[in-house]
Amino acid sequence: MKGNRCLLIGLLLLAGCDQPAPTPKSFAGLGQDATAFSQVTRAHSLVFPLDHAAHNGFRIEWWYVTANLKDNQGRDWGAQWTLFRSALRPGPETTGWNSPNLWMGHAALTGPGGHQSSETLARGGIGQAGVEATPFRAWINDWSLQGSNDLARLQMTANGKGFNYTLNLVSTGPLVLHGTQGYSEKSGKGQASYYYSQPFYRVSGEVERDGQRLAVTGSAWLDREWSSQPLASGQSGWDWFSLHLDSGAKLMLFRVRETQGTPYRAGTWISAEGRAQALQGEQIQLQELAWSKQENGREVPTRWRVQVPAHDVDVQVDALEPNAWMSTRFPYWEGPVHFSGSVSGKGYLEMTGY
Amino acid sequence: MSPLLIALQALLSHWRRHRLQFFSIFTGLWLATALWTGVQALNSQARADYARASAVLAGPAQAQLVARSGERFDQSLYLQLRKLGWQLSPVLEGRLRFAGEQPLTVRLIGIEPLSLPAAMTVAGTSLQGFDLQAFIGMPGQAWVGPDTLRQLGVDATGRATSSDGQVLPPLVVQPQLAPGVIVVDIGHAQALLHAPGQLSRLLVGDEARPLPAAFAERLTLHAPSDDGDLQRLTDSFHLNLTALGLLAFVVGLFIAHAAIGLALEQRRGLIRNLRACGISLNTLLIALVLELGVFAVLGGLAGVASGYGLAALLLPDVAASLRGLYGAQVAGQLNLPAWWWLAGVVVSVFGALLAGVSSVLRAARLPLLALAQPQAWRLAQGPWLRRQALAAGLLLAVALGCWQWGNSLASALLLLATLLLAAALLLPALLDGALAWLARLCRGPLAQWFVADSRQQLPALSLALMALLLALAASVGVGSMTEGFRKTFSAWLDQRLSADLYLTPQDTTQALQITDWLARQPAVTTLLPSWRAEIRLQQWPVQVQGIIDHPAYPARWPLLEQRPQAWAQLASGRAVMLSEQLARRLGVQVGAPLQLPNQAMTVVGIYADYGNPKGHLLVNADWLRGHLPEAKLSTISLNLAPEGIAPLKADLQQRFALDDSRVVEQASLKRWSTEIFSRTFAATTALNSLTLGVAGVALFISLLTLSQSRLGQLAPLWALGVRRTQLVWLSLGQTLMLSSLTVLLAIPLGLLLAWCLVAVVNVQAFGWRLPLHVFAAQLLQLALLGLLTSLLASAWPLWQLARRQPSALLRQFADEG
Amino acid sequence: MLVIEHLHKSFSTAQGPLPVLQGVDLHLAQGSSLALMGESGSGKSTLLHLVAGLDRADSGRILIDGQPLDGRSEAALARWRREGIGLVFQQYNLISSLDVAANLAFQARLAARCEQHWLDYLTTRLDLASLLQRYPEQLSGGQQQRVAIGRALAARPPLVLADEPTGSLDEASSDEVLTLMLQLVGEAGSSLLMVTHSPRQAARLEQRCVLHAGRIQREAL
Q1: What is the CATH number of the domain that holds A205?
Q2: CB–CB of C93 and B817 under 8 A?
Q3: Predicted complex ipTM
């Protein structure tokens, strides 16, 4: 369960090694020619809108939107839209089935009474899935995320068995670069990714569950990340928080768990105006308070104490739906949360490797 | 020691002194199990391979989208449907040819593992077990079954090269993969098949919904396909094999039955003694059954081992005929689980029980006190013959009933079985009658003795003679049918395959181009394009062939039955002609109406279509194109001057990129067809010879056991002044006389059998009836073979007799030395 | 007619050669009868078999009318049995596949010396007329032995060899069968060499001798 295979799964889906590997031989054969893939470097500056599109040459990349929503009866909902790109080998995209790219879409709708998720896969090279920058369009089969070149206005749609949603996203703040100008470290050993977000979306749209359509509004957070080797060996999974504070500030925190030793922690404090401030590991304290059993029988922490003393944050974070399990090919936990304490608000929590 | 052990020990001690009997019982069970297991192994292997073939892409009942034209379509349709939310997985299929000593054509299946429905397995491998990276990456993987791998010429790097020079991805063996299939990623398949951007079908992953109008023009939804076709089509073939295996099984049991019976007779005294010593009847019976069980297990183990060998030997021929006849891919190597083989031992136990039950029952009824007098054979023989004749009469009545009212393959085979059994049961009575008649002609004392003694031997030899009769009759019957079929078939082929060149274009578009081009070639004298579509009539798969109105057809297309002006009516588009098997299946006769999709037609002709497991229907090409738009222009046949064939072929191949398999000359087509048919009957013939061999063994063993008791008959003659050599010749003469009489009876029986085969069994099994041919030379050959078999069978016992010291004969006279 | 000189015969057994006859001398005149007695295993039957040409002696001579029997070919021995002797066995040894009539005439026809009136006479004397169409297995022991005697005498052979001919019969039938045989042998003009256990039966023959330890011990009376 360790070594390459682990890394690989971690790479693709941030799943960890304690997880029974869902597939022994999965998408990418890491390590063989890892160096042939493009590498993440500290002194690189991101260029938009070019960097909104796919980065062929890098091994792994994703477009990730999570939305905290409310229907007109005041009930909380959560929606997730994710597109992963995974390259089998280095090199540019080619035309035809022999393209190096594999695409995977995950969508979920969490709301009163449950969590529904869906997965769709596609091969690169034939137009079945892809991401273009101008105009911005990310799609896989019949799911899409598309809009203006600067990502300020997006429409997001996806579906699964028994659910679908169409949401319109309008940003009220700037793009935020994590780490050092978008260079985000994932361990103390140099593993890193390019990572930027758009946490300031106002959302309106419709969700449909089991044939019932509901108008919803809320806020959303877009994550963009790409790399060729973001996790170090010995890292078993991670816990990631994206929190919308009622004050208008945003907080991104993550912890990469080590099979041995203290987890690697990092985060970004984003002021209501969109100024980002990187958080060091020692500034962050994360503590599991309660665990919930998931459909695969694993216990996953769904109540946390999150402390960032430098920004007077000491809150208890609770999952809206403790069983927000993504039973996809590479399963993990992802769902909306709400928190209260020194400050309150909503957000999303992602946990892999359980 | 328990009474059971004592009884068992006493019973088993018999075999030390009667090794030959032991060997007989063992041989009977061994041969029976071997032939039965062998045949069943062939059937099971073939069926397992059909299952593998239909399980290449296995999943829950799978609807699929295919092009209305029946041809490939552009993958943009796939992308558009995916964007509309359809859960689809694309498949590209085609034929990939490999050159080499034995040119090989495989079915190349290109799949897209990412989109395959989750419940689906590919060659028995579930999606979770896939090494996706290796399969879809570069250089990728080509999955082959072990059998196909052997047939492919593979270079040192594990790569195979197709006949057009394409290098396949590295081969990976998938034990579960059906023979004759290669599975690759769809990207590799498009390259290998020269079909960039092309797809053959789309597997529908979720519930099928109506296609949007724009797509419905191009694609059509096929309900989950019925993979049972192959099973159904080949059923009759396997039933035939099973029948032969059963015959061999019965002959083997005959041997065991005879030997077990003899052993009981010889142990009557022992059994009485044991009972007199206080061993209960139950204990004794248990001991007898246990003893039988030992035989069964020994014979079963040997039989299973030989059955494996037999099946391994015959499988290549069986596989070839299944491939040729039904297009069914069957591996050339046995691959059945160990438990399957062990089940063969169970068959042996069953056979031993069957063969021994009457003996055990007789032992149970054996009176405790009985005079130790030798069996009064003459007193017993009369009722014995009458009983058998009565049973034979009953069986004949059943046979008659089957012939009169039977309407299935099972009843046809029952007819055969009852006929054979009745003849076998009648045999002793007939022989006895013949000998009685001969006895009246005999004057000399030795001649009289010769006949009278032969009559006396009859009960002991009758089982072996029955086996010989059955085996010979089966040989004559099957031989006549096979030869007759070969004759009819080659005459039919000569007539039907009268074009010089046959073309199979890649698709209709190309076919039309070729037709246009050929029409402009002055060398071409006749040009016959034919269109084809597949439909189902009463659930039976039917090929509809559309032909143009051309005077060549009446000349080339022999009709078994027809209405006046049949060809003109066909050309008018209001009439059809049917293959014989289709007509029988549908129960239609010439002149009857036939409801086709969209229109009712009149049947104006019926023709032979040997070897086609599907139905065949001949219609006018224009009608076909008008009513079944999916019809393809599938073949073009043409005639031209002999010297023009080679250049035209070369020109066609170059101009239209047609390889050798798409442009075929008449001669090679004919050769191919006849080869398939000869291989079809290779297994039958082999099994038949084996059955004859088994009958020979039965005769041998009977004579050998008889030779022990024969001494008592021969010694007085010797004492009365008949020379030993003379006695040997007389004995040989007796055996030969009995087997000659049997052979004489076997020939008419065999011919009757042949008639049943061509006129009843073939009609039920394949749908065609053949004329009955009698091949005198073949009959003579078989008769001599039968005599030779019995000669060989009697050689050893007689040699033993000739070699015997006078003292052995003397022992017949006195107890004291 | 029959002269036996220094006849030796041994059988090979697992324990080495077992001498049975160790210098037997015997003389039987034409038309006379001799009873050969001795305990079980004394070699009586062996001697009879040697005379019948069914077996060969190790040494010594058997002379028939001055002609030696040993050294004759298999075919000549068969001819000797066919034409020169009539054999009567304890176990009758009839040909089970032939009826009584065919059994009676069998040897005479083999020897091509079948005289119908003699056969008819034998049939009457042996009281077989009503049994002619029967088969051996349908006859009683006495009846079977009468058929065997008839068969042996049918060709009027010069010598009749009988090996315990009444050994399987009860006393009454024994006497009856023996009487018949002796009368008929006399009528046929044959000599008789008979092996028997019974001194009472032996007494009815002209000469008697006892075989003991491989030699003729006593040529009585």
Answers
A1: 2.40.370.10
A2: no
A3: 0.89
